[in-house]
Each structure stands twice: as C-alpha cells, then as structure tokens.
Amino acid sequence: MFEDYIPFFIQLAIASGLSLTLLKGGELLGPSRPNRIKIMPYESGMDPVGSARQRYSIKFYLVAMIFIVFDVEIVFLYPWAISFQDFLAAGVGLEVLGIVIVFIVILAIGLIYDIKKGGLEFD
Amino acid sequence: MEMTLNWYLTLSSVLFITGTLGFLFRRNIIVMLMSIELMLNAVNLTLVALSQAAADTAGQILVFFVIAVAAAEAAVGLAIVIAVFRGRQTIDISKIKSFRY
Amino acid sequence: MELSQAYTSLLSDMGHTIPLILIVLTGLVIVLLDAFKPRHVSIPYLTALVLAVALGLEIQTIGSQGGTAYYELIRVGGMAAYVNAVILTSGLLSVILMKPYLERIDHNIGEAYALLLFSITGMMVLGSANSLVTIFVGLETMSICLYIMTALIRSHKGAIESALKYFLLGAFSTGFFLYGIALLYGATGTMMLPEMRGAVAVSDSDTMFWAGLALLLVGFMFKVGAAPFHMWTPDVYQGAATPITGFMSTASKTAAFASLILVLYYAVPAETWNGVIAILALITMIVGNVIAISQTNLKRMLAYSSIAHAGYVLVGLSAGTGAGYSGALYYMLVYTFMNIGAFGVIAFMEFDGKEGSEQRLDSLAGIGYKKPVLSVCMIFFMFSLAGFPPFGGFFGKIAVFAPAIDAGFIWLAIVGVLTSAVSAYYYLRVLVVFFMKQPDGVYDFDASPVPFSATAVIVLCAGVILVLGVAPSIMEVTMSFFSSSITTTAAVLP
Fold it and tell me: Reduced to 3 DSSP states, what percent helix, strand and coil does chain C have, rounded to the nearest 5?
C-alpha cells in the first residue's frame, strides 16, 4: 500500500525543494539595500496608520458562541434520526418523536432566554 | 501496513500530552483553553478507537456527550476570559493574582 | 433490549426519579420566568419549595431497597436516596441563606437559582451514577454550573479571578478524568460499574486498567479538593459569594465522594487501592490543617479546613470496607450542616463590600456581643469542626477513623487525631476573636439585623449538629447500604 504512494512523495519533495531553493537563492544571491521607504508595506501608497491588530465588537463572539452551543446539540439528533425507522417499525414512532420534541423544547427555552436577554441584538 | 488499534492510541496519547504540556507551559489563557480542547479531542479519538475495537457503542455515545460538554465549557470559559479582560486589560495568567496572603 | 418496550420502561423509570425531574423542570421554568420578568420575587420561593418537596420524596425512599433506572444508568433508592437527600438538604439550606445575602449585595438575580437547581441536578446524577457515562455527564453539569455561580458577582474582580482559576483547573482535571474513563473502558470493554470488576479479572490489559484508574482518581481528587490537587480551593472559596461557597463545599463534595465510593466499591478489585488513598488522605490532612493555621482571612481558613475534612473522609475510604464507606457518607452529612452553618454565620458578619474576601479575622473582634445568636451558633460549628464531643463532628471522626484502624491503618488514624488537635487551635482562635478580643481599630461595622429566615437556618444547623452528636443512629442507615452483597444491588427495580 505504501509503495503505491512513492511517486507522490517524490513529487512532493521536488516541488517543495525547488520552491524553497529558489526563494532562499534569490535572497542570498541578490543585492539587498533596504531603506525606510523601501520596507514600507505600500512603497508608493498611503503611509500606514496605527496597528493592523484591531479589536472588533464583542457581539461577534456572543453570536458565534451561541451558534456553537446550539450547533453541537444537533449531534444528539443524528443517532435518533438513524434509529427512528427502527422505532417506527417497533410501533413506538410517535412516542419517540415526542421525546425528541421535549429535547428541542429544552433547547428552545435556552434560545428564548437568549433573545429576551438581548444576546442576539447585533448593533 | 495495517492501521492497528495501537496507532490510534499512540496518536491520541501524543495529542493528549501535547495538550497537557500546552496547558502547563503557555501563559495566555486563550491558548490554555485551546490546549484543554486538544486534550478532550484526544480522549474522543481514544474512545472512538476503543469503541470500534470492542464493537461496542457505549464509547461513541460518551463521545457525543464530550463534544457537547466541550462546547459548553468553551462558552463558559470564553465568557470568564472576557470578564477578566474587562477588569484587568490582560489575559496573561501570571499577571492575575489578587489573592496573596 | 426490545425497542417497543423502551418507551414504557422509560416512563416507568421516570416514576422512580421524580425529584430529579421536578428539579430540572423547575430550573427551566425559572429560566423562562427570568427571561420575561427579570428578578421576579417568586423565584427564590419556587426554588426553596421544589427543593423541599424533592427532599421529602427522597427521605421517604431512603429505607427502600436500592435499584437502578434508565437501563442501569443511574441508581435509585437506598444509598442514592441518602446521597440525594444530603445534596438537597445542602441546596435547601443554601437557598434560604442566599436570598437575603444576594439581596443585600443587590445581586438577587434569577439565574443564580436556576444555576443552583441545574448544579443540584448534576450532583444527583453524579452521586447516584451506575455507569461511567453518567458519572461524566453529572460531573460536568455540576462543574459548569459551579463555574458560573463562582463568577456571579461580575463587578467584583476577585470573584471573576476565582472563577477563572476554578474553570481552568477544573477543565484541565476533566481532561484527565475523561482519559481515565477512556482507558478503563478500553481495558474492560464496558461502561457499567458493576460489570467492571468481573471484566478486569479476565482482562489481560492490566496496565491500561490501572493507568485509567489512576487518571480517574486524579480527577476525583481534584473535585473533592484533596492534596496535592487542592490548589484551586482557597482562591475559589475566598472569591465566591459566601453562601454559594457553603453550597459548593458541601454538596459538590458529597456528590463527588459518593461517586468515588461507588467506583471503589463496585468497579475496583478490593484491597488494591487502599494504600494509595491512605497516603493521599495523610497528605491532605497535614496540608489542610497546617496551612489553615497561618490564615488571616476567615473564608480562606475555612477553605483550608475543608481540604482537611476531605482528608478525614479519605481516611474512611482508605479502609476499603463497608464500615469505612458508610462512615464517610455519615461524615458528609455532618459536614454539610457544620459547614453551611459556619459559612452562613460569616456571610452575615462580613462588611467589606467584597464578599468577605479581603476582610481579616481580627476585624471581627468583639462581634460576639453585637450578633450574639450567630456567634453562639458559631461556637457549635467550630467545636464540631474541631471534633469535640458531644457534637456531630466527633462521631463523624470516629466513624471514619475506626474502620481505618480495623483495616490496619493505625498510623493514619494517629495522624488524623494529631492533625485534629492542631485544627482545634485555629477553630478556637475564631471564637477567641469573636468573644474575648477588643477591636484594634474602628471598622465600618454592618449593624443591620440578620433576617429571620437566615437566623432560623443557622440555628437549625447548630441544633442538628447537637442531635447528630447525641444520637448518631443514622450510622446504621448508611451502614445498611453496604451490608448486602454486590450482586443484589445491581438488580433492576420491579
């Protein structure tokens, strides 16, 4: 199995080796005389102002966090969805559907709480 | 080459140790949180591999709970980190020590 | 398992876990109520009511034969009912103390009560777990709620810092706990505790089993605050709101110890871990008691004292016998009343505006004459914590030390008695400051009267300690959980 991939690894080695050699070679062989104007990000553009690392609104975090929590809860629905046909065949389909509705209602309570407390107001 | 159970166990133990060392040696709280996530996911890998080897689903069921718990833990943890940052303007764990008696 | 019967068995099992379901539902109702009517006046009363009802239901089933529910995932009746009753008692007493306290610092928010109920749910699942999956789910439900409750006073930097430390170390220990579960599962091929012992006897992956158990023990030792995994305890107890500290220190430890007892009793071959637990108990008792001597903050001192008490309980566990386990359970009951009472007293004595986290013990000099009822109750709590007869703490210590002596750990019991003698110094110093010292400066003393409900709870705790000391017959109840053989306890309820 491993033998089948040998050409791939050779290709990988040549590609990465060539690109590294060219990059490093250009740096080593070429003349390098930097000055303040030359090393600016935009040599003939605007002067950079301030830091590039700006903070952005905390609301973004809040929405992302709520998304992750609710998103992950869906993982519990997959096993249920897969075995639902078996439950239907066993004649307890409606009851098992009811149990999942209870689960979703509990999640919905969390969402209602979130909306009422202003967790989703993005301004 | 066959992928045996030991490969998975070795990989997951390496991941777990990476997470542990990251937690112990990094001073940025966000990185520490990420290390904890790495530890939990290493355990997930162990559980799935062992569950598959034993042909038993209990381990995979626990993985679902671990995923859910990890999400809840990340939410609570980030909320606490934000509260800390608002009060102190830093998330360096070695600078947060008001209880000294 | 037959699919068509799964639903009916679920419904019938729900009948055996009514207290658990009631508490979850009330927690959800409070979340909704708080969303539409923030800080509604009925929330604390609703919480106290449901806890009282659940406590009554659990006490009724204490005497019954234990069984399991939900496909053997959790235990009901018998020992589970006892553990749940202790947890619910702790929750009920804490709620009554919490309401006036949170009102005073203007943080009487509905979430506090919802979180309390959800954490109690987790504790009840943890304390009555019969499978590693339920242990994990219960432990995390409890822990995550407690992290948030520690950070409840958001404006106070100390509380946030406490929560951060609690969260980071708690989540870190969860990783070890979980890895332990995974290895145990791999070694035995089962998550069910009673099946584990049989599986390890025939399994050839011994190293995996013992490594898994060691990691699991690390997680448990962290949750009960035993040395050398105790570092978070003082900071967390000092920074959190005082009645919540009382709740955390009693209910969560009860649940974690009950779960540890279940693991040791059902899953681990007997006579193999006693030595390790004995050494942990030794370190914990010494560390807790010795460091507590030098503390100047009352809450921090009680935090170290709670480490020491975890050590005493571990002495009972190290015996590895039914008597030791039942003694540990009895000790947790006594400890619940002692500690909730002690934290309740200092909750209504603090006046630094920072939940007592920066208030020195000396600033309380002479308070015994300004708040006589609380201070007299404090005499009861301190003497009981130090282990003087005729209080409950004395019999609790006998209950955990005697089985250890029977099991051959005489040196451990000697160290336990010696460290108890050391502990008497710092407990009695509190009383000396309360009654026999003059204030060394002018303090902005809070002279507002203590609410009747809180006084009633504290007096009740003091009374119960005296009753437990005079009539320790509840020992027979806890003993009965371990007298029957292991095979019968795994039977499913009819």
Answer: 75, 0, 20
